[in-house]
Amino acid sequence: MLLGIVKGNAVCTIKYPGTQGLKLLVVQPVNKHLQPLGGLQVAADTVHAGEGDLCVMVRAREAALALPDEKFVPVDLALVGIVDELEVKSDASFNLTLQRGWNPYS
Kind and range of the H or E element at 61? Predict the structure, then answer.
C-alpha cells in the first residue's frame, strides 16, 4: 500500500486529451510511520482529497484505470482513498506461517 500526504494543488494550462477537468495534487509519499519517502509527486485525484489528507495511492497502469470516466490516459499516480484511521502494528504481532487446513492468508 502506498501512502501520501496532500501538500497542495498542481495547475496545468495545457493538458493531454482526456485529462481535462482532472484535479492534480502535489503529494508527499510517506511510510507507515508517516515519515517522508523521497520527493514530492503529482497525482490525479479521484477521491476529492484536500490539503493535509492522508491518502492511499496507486501507480502505473492501476493509476490510469482508477480514473472514473477516461481510460488509457498517461497518468502514473492516482489517489484512490482517503485514510480515516491508521493503526500500525509491530511485525512481531503477525504469524504468517501457513498451517495445514484452512488459512486466512491464502
Answer: helix 60-65
